C-alpha cells in the first residue's frame, strides 16, 4: 500500500525541527549517514545555524562541536569535510562560521587560515580555486571573501581583482553564473551578491534586472526555483525538504528557516543574509552591514 501523502501545514513546527536536527547524528546505521560523510562539517554548520535561529543552539554540546571542527583542521590552514578529508574552501568557511557562532575563533591559528584562503586566489583572474586542484567557481569567491571577512583579514587578498571576476560572471539577464558565460542560477546569485556586499560593491549589480529575474523564480504554488523551467526548491522558500512530499534534510531545513527569518516569521532570531549566520554573531564580530534603504 502506498504511503499517504503528507498533510500540508502552515504552522511552523519548531519542536519537530529541533528534534530532527538533534537526531541527525544518531542515524549512524543508515546508508545516507555514511554517504554524506564528506559533507559532515557543512551539516554541523547547517544544523547549528538553524538551531541558533530558533533560539536553541544549546541542543548541541558546544565543546563536542568545537572538538569535531578542530579535528577537521589541517596544518596548512584549511578544513576538510570530515577528519581525514582534504581541505577545501567550502568546508573552511563552514568551520569558521561554526567557531564564530560559538565565539571560539581563538581556538585556531587565524593567520594560517587566512594564508590558506589567500593562497587559492588566481593571480591572473582574481578568481578562487576551491582547493589545490584548481576548480574555479563563484561559490569559492564567496567562501573566500566571507571567511576572510569573519577573520578580519580581507587585506590578505586582491579584493578589487576578486570583485572584477565576479562582475564578469553577470549575464544578460542580470543574474550570475559559476564563471563567465555560465548559466544564471539562484545559488550563484546568492554567492555573487553576498561577495559583492562584503566588498562594498553592490553598485555593480543591475538591481532592476536582477530583481526581475529573482521575482520570476516564483511559481504558481508560491515556491521558487533556482533557474527557469525548473521545479520549486526549498533553499529559495521555506520548510525542511526541497519541496512538498520529499524527504527532509538539514540543508533545506536551514535555508527554509532562514527564509522564514527574513520574512520575520514565527519569532525566529534575525539572520544576516550576507553570511547566512545569526545577525547577533555578525554584529558581535563587527561585520554586519547596515540595512539597505528601500
From TrEMBL:
Binds 1 zinc ion per subunit. It holds the Pfam family Prenyltrans. GO terms for cellular component: Rab-protein geranylgeranyltransferase complex. GO terms for molecular function: metal ion binding; Rab geranylgeranyltransferase activity. CDD domains: GGTase-II. Keywords: Metal-binding, Prenyltransferase, Repeat, Transferase, Zinc. It catalyses: geranylgeranyl diphosphate + L-cysteinyl-[protein] = S-geranylgeranyl-L-cysteinyl-[protein] + diphosphate. Residues 12-233, 234-277 form the Prenyltransferase alpha-alpha toroid domain. InterPro entries: PGGT1B-like, Prenyltrans, Ptb1, Terpenoid_cyclase/PrenylTrfase. Its EC number is 2.5.1.60. Its cofactor is Zn(2+). Gene3D superfamilies: 1.50.10.20. Catalyzes the transfer of a geranylgeranyl moiety from geranylgeranyl diphosphate to both cysteines of proteins with the C-terminal sequence -XXCC, -XCXC and -CCXX. Belongs to the protein prenyltransferase subunit beta family. This is Geranylgeranyl transferase type-2 subunit beta. It comes from Tieghemiomyces parasiticus.
Amino acid at each position: 500500500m502506498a504511503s499517504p501523502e503528507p498533510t500540508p501545514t502552515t504552522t511552523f513546527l519548531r519542536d519537530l525541527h529541533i528534534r530532527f536536527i538533534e537526531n541527525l547524528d544518531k542515524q549512524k546505521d543508515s546508508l545516507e549517514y555514511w554517504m554524506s560523510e564528506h559533507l559532515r562539517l557543512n551539516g554541523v554548520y547547517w544544523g547549528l545555524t538553524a538551531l541558533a535561529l530558533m533560539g536553541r543552539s544549546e541542543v548541541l554540546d558546544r565543546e563536542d562541536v568545537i572538538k569535531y571542527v578542530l579535528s577537521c583542521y589541517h596544518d596548512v590552514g584549511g578544513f576538510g569535510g570530515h577528519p581525514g578529508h582534504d581541505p577545501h574552501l567550502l568546508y573552511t568557511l563552514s568551520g569558521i562560521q561554526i567557531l564564530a557562532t560559538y565565539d571560539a575563533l581563538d581556538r585556531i591559528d587565524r593567520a594560517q587560515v587566512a594564508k590558506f584562503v589567500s593562497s587559492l586566489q588566481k593571480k591572473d583572474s582574481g578568481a578562487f580555486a576551491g582547493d589545490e586542484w584548481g576548480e574555479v567557481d563563484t561559490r569559492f569567491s564567496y567562501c573566500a571573501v566571507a571567511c576572510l571577512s569573519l577573520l578580519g583579514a580581507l587585506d590578505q587578498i586582491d579584493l578589487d581583482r576578486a570583485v572584477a571576476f565576479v562582475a564578469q560572471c553577470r549575464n544578460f539577464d542580470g543574474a550570475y553564473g559559476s564563471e563567465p558565460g555560465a548559466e544564471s542560477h539562484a545559488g550563484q546569485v546568492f554567492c555573487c551578491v553576498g561577495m559583492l556586499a562584503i566588498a562594498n560593491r553592490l553598485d555593480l549589480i543591475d538591481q532592476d534586472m536582477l530583481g526581475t529575474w529573482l521575482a520570476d523564480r516564483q511559481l504558481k504554488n508560491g515556491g521558487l526555483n533556482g533557474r527557469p523551467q525548473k521545479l520549486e526548491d526549498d533553499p529559495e522558500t521555506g520548510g525542511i525538504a526541497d519541496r512538498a512530499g520529499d524527504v527532509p534534510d538539514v540543508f533545506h531545513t536551514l535555508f527554509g528557516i532562514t527564509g522564514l527569518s527574513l520574512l520575520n516569521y514565527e519569532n525566529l532570531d534575525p539572520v544576516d543574509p550576507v553570511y547566512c549566520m545569526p545577525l547577533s554573531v555578525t554584529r558581535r564580530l563587527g561585520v554586519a552591514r547596515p540595512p539597505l534603504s528601500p
